[in-house]
Amino acid sequence: MASIVGILSLQGAVEPHAEAVRDCGAEARFVRTAEELGPCDSLIIPGGESTTMGMLMERFDLLGPIAKHADQGKPILGTCAGMIVLAKEIVGSDQARLGLMDTRVERNSYGRQLDSFETPVCVPTLGGGPFPGVFIRAPHVESLSGEAAVLADLDGRAVFVRQGRLLASSFHPELTTDRRVHEYFLGLTR
Predict the structure, then answer these.
(1) How is the chain split among helix, strand and coil, in percent rounded to 5?
(2) Is 122 a catalytic residue?
């Protein structure tokens, strides 16, 4: 039976993640409520605008249910804005967040929208050579503690981290045809 991957669908790049999940043989479901999150085996928090995303998670009463989802050992992948809202601390911001990962994240650390770029990222955990990293107003992990570990860095900045069944990336794996990040994530679910 295929696993059910929820994709937080309040704001941000939702459909590309759904396509990646389907390409990996899992079922994608769009999540806007706690009831829609319930049957999901895992959750993806997409890129978008982290302040807006945090505010909408508060408004739709999803912060608690998502934290409970994580407490039940269900995996979560946060990409770009998702990395920010998963962090315990955000440099210079008290915006709403989940605070599930022992990370301190700096927003927009690679510049503005005009400064977006694509570059190969070495992710040994994924195997198969460099991953095509798409960075759009990307954050990075300034520091981490506890069980949080760096899976990849770019120019000395942590851009892909894991803490148990939680993953967070600065880059957008859903905007490439390389499905290794989504396959790795689904491996945490199975």
Answers:
(1) 30, 30, 40
(2) no
Residue type, 118: E
Contact residues for 25 (Cβ-Cβ < 8 A; gap 6+): 2, 186
Q: Using one digit for the tens of pLDDT, what is the confidence trace for 138-173?
A: 999 999 999 999 999 999 999 999 999 999 999 999
Of 53, 149, 44, 147, nearest in space to 93 by CA: 53
Do 94 and 58 form a contact (C-beta atoms < 8 A)?
no
Strand-pair partners of 93: 90
Instruction: Select which of 80, 106, 140, 182 is catalytic.
Output: 80
Q: Which of 17, 69, 140, 172 is catalytic?
A: 172
Predicted confidence (pLDDT) at residue 175 exceeds the cutoff of 60: yes
The CATH number for 4-189, chosen from 3.30.40.10, 3.40.50.880, 2.60.120.10, 3.40.50.170, is 3.40.50.880
Is there a catalytic annotation at residue 24? no
Q: What's the mean pLDDT in 133-140?
A: 94
Q: Which is it for the CA torsion 137, 141, 147, 152, positive or negative? A: positive
What residues does each domain of the chain span?
A: 4-189
Question: Does the CA dihedral 32-35-37-40 come out positive or negative?
Answer: negative
In one-letter notation, the amino acid at residue 132 is P
Active-site residue, from 17, 40, 140, 174: 174
Q: Which pair of tokens denotes residue 81?
A: 């804005």
174 is catalytic: yes
